[in-house]
Amino acid sequence: MIFIAQRSFLTVAVATILSFLFLPAVSAHLQKRHASRRDTSWSDAYTFLSTHNAIRVQHGASPLTWSYTLADAAQSWVNQCEFRATDGQLLDTSYGEIIEAGSGEVSIETAVASFVADEADYTDGSDVLNHFTQVVWKSTTELGCARSTACNGIFDTGGSQTLIVCLYNPPGNVIGEATNNVQA
Questions:
Q1: Which helix (H) or strand (E) covers residue 165, if one does?
Q2: Nearest one of 113, 119, 129, 122 to 166, comparing CA atoms
Q3: Distance CA 146, CA 70 (A)
Q4: What pLDDT digit, counting tens, does each position of 128-153 carry?
Q5: Which residues on neighbouring strands pair with residue 144, listed in sequence order?
Q6: Same domain, 96 and 146
Q7: Domains held by the chain: number
Q8: Are 85 and 132 in a shared domain?
Q9: Which pLDDT value is given to residue 58?
Q10: Quick one: 28 and 116 in the same domain?
Q11: Structural domain containing residue 16
């Protein structure tokens, strides 16, 4: 018994020493490889996705999948703390976008709820295209979002503000296609 316990201790000790030796190299590799992905946590990605999908299912749209390409592009915009449209400059392909800002810390759930607050402005067959129609657009399949709670100067109120950017692929809100893509 003593021999097994000593051997187990020795194995753990060697493994611990090796992890301390190699951990910095592995950590640096992972940080370099996933540098843009570490800004949006798994928890935030899940919250963005599940909140969107809960709304989409109520309107006959299939669930979205998470896109790291879209999330990385959204993060690059959020990092600039610019509360304006991206004008399609983030990616080489077209995408839909919703940009939201608020004073203080705004939760993901609150932001997505505000995206669809304009649902009442849309009726089936309407030409009104808005944030709500982008969120529930049936042909959209991918979502990528980012959030910063440390933006200053977006509003004149002082203090920190939250900026949230969500990008959608393929883009929704295509004129003439709402009847096939939006179920109010």
A1: strand 160-169
A2: 113
A3: 9
A4: 899 999 999 999 999 999 999 988 88
A5: 167
A6: yes
A7: 2
A8: yes
A9: 97
A10: no
A11: 1-33
H, E, C per residue of 83-105: CCCCCCCCCCCCCEEEEEEEECC
More confident residue, 105 or 12: 105
pTM value surpassing 0.70 = yes
> Are 106 and 135 in the same domain?
yes
Q: Which of 14-18, 19-23, 24-28, 41-45 shows the highest mean pLDDT?
A: 41-45
Closest CA to 170 of 137, 147, 125, 133: 137
The pLDDT tens digits of the residues spanning 62-118 come to 999 999 999 999 999 999 998 988 887 788 789 999 999 999 999 999 999 999 999
The one-letter amino acid at 161: Q
Let me know whether 22 and 49 are in one domain: no
- Report the alpha-carbon distance of residue 82 to residue 153 in Å, rounded: 9
- Residues 74, 159: Cα–Cα separation, whole Å: 23
Nearest residue to 129 (alpha-carbon basis) of 141, 142, 140: 140
Helix (H) or strand (E) holding 111: helix 108-115
Annotate 43-89 with DSSP letters as a single string. Answer: HHHHHHHHHHHHHHHTTTPPPPEE-HHHHHHHHHHHTTT--S--TT-
